[in-house]
Write a structure and sequence with these properties.
about 375 residues, six-stranded mixed sheet
Amino acid sequence: MGDGALVGVAGFARALEEAGLPVTLDATHAYVRALLEVDASNPAHVYWTGRTTLCRDPDDIPRYDLAFEAWFGGDLPVISRTTGQQQRTATVAALTSPGGSDSEGDDSPRLQVAADDTEILRHRDIAELTPAERAHLDEMLTLLEPRPPRRPAARLRPSRRGTVDPRRTLRAMLAAGGEAVRPARHSRATRPRRVVLLIDVSGSMSPYADALLRFAHVVTRSNPAATEVFSLGTRMTRLSRAMRARDPERALAAASSTVPDWAGGTRLGDTLRAFLDRWGRRGIARGAVVVIFSDGWERGDTSLLAEQMAQLRRLAHAVLWVNPHAGADGYEPIQSGISAALPHLDRLLAGHSLATLEELLKEVHRA
């Protein structure tokens, strides 16, 4: 493998870091050594060699695929059913048991029941669910596929469209003996934008807190390097490390043991001030998409909340407020906290059901 190929490997490692998959030096060396043992001119060999040596967790694979496509171009190698592993897909069972009148060989009525149950549950208020329905909802939350928002990066990358890259074009002309060649082009690369989730765990939000933390776990696992999670109550608690646990039950258990004011009161102004003073102004909120999950009941000074929201809006790229009650018919934002925060929000959204959380993911991606 020549020096140019080694430079290409180093560039691919940087591309992986831009995609949110940090690569250690040892892993890069292992990748180089493995490439020496395979046919480096075969894209499939290059793909599987990198996936084997550079991915440490199954959750790394989507980010690896995106970086591989962006760096090397072309389609990803397809796994055949006879030579490779089959992709695993999660399934959700029906809430109701199939009736005894269904024939044993015909599964279509059972599938229809499962589909109907799932669609109904998507729009049900989380606070009104039975324990069985909550367990079903937990499974459905794990099927969400968040797409993090993107922001421009300082680095330029080769592209089929974009501005002409004079250096690469000149090098190509020199390699062709001075003959005219097709101009090389480049465009601005992108990287994930930070997402900050602030979740109210006070008593009035307790019917939704568990589902919202599970939602936060799904968002965090999709992009651990660029997602931060905090709880709001009478104080601010950082839950980012707990949310990075692979197993959702273990993540929620760690979060519950970390939060000292679970189901307590709400002092949104004081907790937001603590967030901005300790974390927000130091970089976590700068240029981020900040999502606040709260019903807006404020026991503290609403003028303080308005002041902190104004500061947060100046720091963040976008501020979204998710209120479980905003989806009710005839809802008006009259709660003291909502009224104080509303002038400083980009969007006020509902968050009482799985369907509204799915819409929230789209809003975050578009922000």
